[in-house]
Input
Amino acid sequence: MKFNVPCKAFYSAVSAVSKVINPKNALAILDNFLIELDGDMLTVTGADVDNSLTARISVAEAEGKCSFCVTARRLVELLKELPDQGITVAVNEETYEVEIAYTGGKYNLTALRGEEYPTYSAAGDDAEPQSFTVSSQTILKGLEYTAFAVGDDDYRPMMKGIFFDIKPDRIVFVATDTHKLVRYTDTRTAPGITASCIMPVKPASIMRTVFGKESELTVSMNAKCAVIENADFTLKCTFLNGRFPDYNRVIPQSSPFRLTVDRVAMLNAVRRVGVFVDPGFGLEKFKITPEKLLIKSDDSNMQTCARETVPCQFNGPETVIGFSAPFITEFMAVLPTTEVYIDLSDPSRAGVFQPSENEDGTDLVMLLMPMNVDKF
Output
């Protein structure tokens, strides 16, 4: 078997696929790529126990049809260092020796038979898979807005992923760790089906990395797994088991008081004041008045204190409330508009963070539970 391929294209494919391979695998074969040639199409596959990713590359001067496995780490490192020019890959189908040659050099690797590579298909069910097409930008936006709110508590495994609530006329993305919750709704997409799933962080991160913003994705899913593909990649992933909380019940339908503040000004102030928080608690205190927001933190152990004032608009009485500095920073970094709204009712109830204006057909809501404040 033999083929020619541009080094940069080959490196981009193997680099993307390598993201699905675990640093340590129970099966040694999973340290390898499965590479297959069929006509002028080369496919590169990597997998772990629950997920697999396949990249497709067009090649030239292809001869033969074969599949083989090579060590992923070594191939990625080699292609990274080679100059950007065409390379020739030849495989001896009897000894499975691989030769990679270009104008200035030649490299030899030992391969394994492609038949030794396990075929991982996430366990499905007997139901017929449901399919729909969606813009990759819709999926990537949903993941961008929700990924940071995913939980990491092993006792709540259903919260360790992003919940996809798919309706005929919309897709809702939700993530929560019980302290914060994010819900992003996109009605610009009409999947035409009703389904739901909890996607783990790893395949969600892979999607954000490998799928371009201007492509169309085909999604085929059942209750336990999904296949997501575009022209260049195919991702197979297994969903998390468990029942996701009823997110709509915990989001306040209305709050009487609204704080309007410049997002960047508040973000920078929170970051600066956050340098002085007690690291054991991460508490920042907020005193809200009709025209200004006073932010304070202190660390009694280190005898330090910080205060900053940010202009704002508030239609309620003077209020003192506490929030986690890291969580506030995450919210302000993700919200997309210049101004943000923070809806409040009282210091013991969650604050609802929203952009001042949503894109047409979308709705972004972020919920943050407050922390106890003894005194300001």
